Amino acid sequence: MISVADFVKQYDSTLAADGLTFRVEPGQIMGLIGPNGAGKTTTLKALSGVVRPTRGTISLCGLSVTNDSVATKRVLSYIPDDPPLFPDLTVDQHLAFAGAAYAVADSDSRAQELLDEFQLCSKRKTLARDLSRGMRQKLAICCGYLHDPSVILFDEPLTGLDPVGIRTLKETIVRRAAAGAAIIVSSHLLAMVENLCSHVLILDSGLQRFFGPLEELKSSFVDRQQAADLERIFFMATGDKAELQPLGA
Asked: In percent, how much of the chain has pLDDT > 70?
């Protein structure tokens, strides 16, 4: 579903991504983690076609992000950190616009279901500029879900959400993965990644430190002869790597 091979992105003298290679299959949820400046947002922007790779190939559902940009956007939803909304459009108007842009046949009924699910019905006539940070996040997620995308990319999706919104979002991510979507969640909340994701990719200074199934990753490394949890692996991978030893070493 998501295929990345030898992805490199160079900004002048800064190497933001250096030879990343990974796959996310239908039904999988991949956690994308790393310190600030690791290349996470650059990777998501490249997957969504916002930035062009310096080298390498990226495909979604068998379509080249570079060569088939319009076709890939039809199967994709990218919800960035602090999503850019139209300040003078209401909640209803945002969903109507998204439905028209993606030619969603049952746009009105789908929009109603999403408004109910994310508890936005009382805000449907409210302008985006008058929404709270969490409400704007919920609206962006609803717009992203409206066309039932096969590939979903989240960048810090829990920002601003209240506990009910967090639970709702997690439930929808699991449900959409179970229905066959390939999902990437970039987050600094390691406990959430460990609880939600089936796979993990750890980036550090543009380099791919680890990639694979989460359980395999946790069981493949030991610290003091005990299986390491994701938080310990993260700090070892991006800090003192000498502390992390492969099993049998």
From this structure: 92
DSSP single-letter state for residue 209: E
| Residue 229 contacts residue 26 (beta carbons within 8 Å) | no
Calpha distance 44→26 (Å, rounded): 17
Radius of gyration of the chain (CA): 19
Domains: count for the chain = 1
Strand, coil or helix: 61: coil
Q: Tokens for 211?
A: 């990639």
Full-model pTM: 0.90
Phi, psi for residue 108 in degrees, rounded to 5:
-65, -45
- Its domain, for residue 133, covers 2-246
Residue 128 in contact with residue 139, Cβ under 8 Å?
yes
* CATH number of the domain to which 111 belongs: 3.40.50.300
* pLDDT greater than 80 at residue 97: yes
Give how far the C-alpha of residue 103 lies from the chain's centroid of Cα atoms, to the nearest Å: 24
* Secondary structure letter of residue 124 according to DSSP: T
CB 64 within 8 A of CB 72: yes
